[in-house]
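Our preliminary data section would be incomplete without showing what the modeling component actually yields. Below, a chain of 303 amino acids is followed by its predicted structure, encoded as tokens that our downstream tools consume directly.
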Amino acid sequence: MKNRKISSRKISKFKRKQLGDSDTHIQDILQKPILTKRDKEALIAIYYHRCLTTEQLAEMFFMYDGKGNLNNQASLIARRRLRKMFDFCLVDRFFIDVGENNGSSQAHIVLDTLGAKIVAGLLNLPLSELQWRYEMNETRLPYLEHMIKINNCYLCLLRMARNHGHEMTVFHTENHVRHEFKYWNQRIVFNPDAYGQYWMGDDGFHFFLELDNGTMTPAVFQKKHQRYTTFYASEEYSKHYENFPLVLTVTTTWERAIQLRKLIQKVDDTDVEWYFTSEDLFEKNPLGAIWLGKEENDPVKFV
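Predicted structure:
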């Protein structure tokens, strides 16, 4: 699989930009019954998640009908609605080259210029405050794979919330969890992979999520750790969060989780709460007794 920019269009980039800049086109979409409530929710999710596959969007928004019944046609409905949004230049899409004789990949959906303007209106924000540019869609492999895996983590949490009558009220990926600040005259950039909030009625917790693909060396992981401890020690976090979120790290294997926990135990003397687990355990029961804490001897659970 080639490490290159990936995109595919039915309408030329120039033509799509013209439509995105057209106030008449925007008014047509807003005034006509083109977008459903779920379409609008999907546009907002694409903005916060940056890139979602067709199947991810199907599970997020089309898995159940209006009465809460399981919808066996979720994938088909999602493809139809996303095709409509694509034709109206609200979203763009691309397909990954999976090689000969391997079939074709599902569509990867990103926000288009007109979609960004619709999202700004739905969030009651000026377009400039979205901090969105079309060029942000032009990502490369393997970072795209990392992004999709982060969003799969969200889906694991969403499934658990649905099965237990809980709520995943917030999940923002890297671009929306970026904090720049100065500490001891140094410019610090703190940007975890994601930030989320999980609620069980009136009780809940918030967390930063880190996805480790097993490629980080101890030195690189220590640098990531230093950004967390600086964000904590500077109290910069208090400008954005009620208290310091948990730090949940999902890695490749249980053995790797143990290694990372040992590394944190050696270098961390703060009150930041670090937890580690493996991908396979997270997929089965993301908030069960699968988490190795910095201080705890036995795995802990959050639900």
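DSSP finds ten helices and eleven strands in the chain. The chain has a mean pLDDT of 88. Preliminary results of this kind motivate Aim 1 of the renewal.
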